[in-house]
């Protein structure tokens, strides 16, 4: 799943300094990202090895709160610049999947569709398709610890162990691979924060720490 390139903190920080970007090192980058998501920020997430395939699986992802129906349109207008009818997918903690989805299949790749339970559709409307289905990614601590920690922190802030997860790119471009790619996409779009390695880069000083 995560077979692509990986970049260390030293390499990332050297680039941030080279570009003279405002950044800081986070004590817990997963928790800071979760706090930003709970505060309705759109977050670029660049961690570990790049995932293989067409889906964002927590290595090169753009993340948003799935709890408001209008968030799908917001992320389309500010970041993705794609057709409004195209749906977004959820990543969720494997431990809570049975509470939200009617499936016994643990899909880790956003490939298969399943039904969102009726009582949960109003809780995660931004990742529920018009027919009541979604294409989920099940996240376990063993497979992607840092992404799981982000989901768990978001659950503690909001009560919801699910986030909207889309590929870290804009329409017509490939998913970002390197830190340079991520920084360019960050400044070319309406992303609020970039969590890259252990560092947080923002465009506004109002970004709240947990």
From TrEMBL:
<dbReference type="GO" id="GO:0016740">
    <property type="term" value="F:transferase activity"/>
</dbReference>
<dbReference type="InterPro" id="IPR038152">
    <property type="entry name" value="Carbam_trans_C_sf"/>
</dbReference>
<dbReference type="InterPro" id="IPR051338">
    <property type="entry name" value="NodU/CmcH_Carbamoyltrnsfr"/>
</dbReference>
<dbReference type="Pfam" id="PF16861">
    <property type="entry name" value="Carbam_trans_C"/>
</dbReference>
<protein>
    <submittedName>
        <fullName>Carbamoyltransferase</fullName>
    </submittedName>
</protein>
<dbReference type="InterPro" id="IPR031730">
    <property type="entry name" value="Carbam_trans_C"/>
</dbReference>
<feature type="domain" description="Carbamoyltransferase C-terminal">
    <location>
        <begin position="34"/>
        <end position="203"/>
    </location>
</feature>
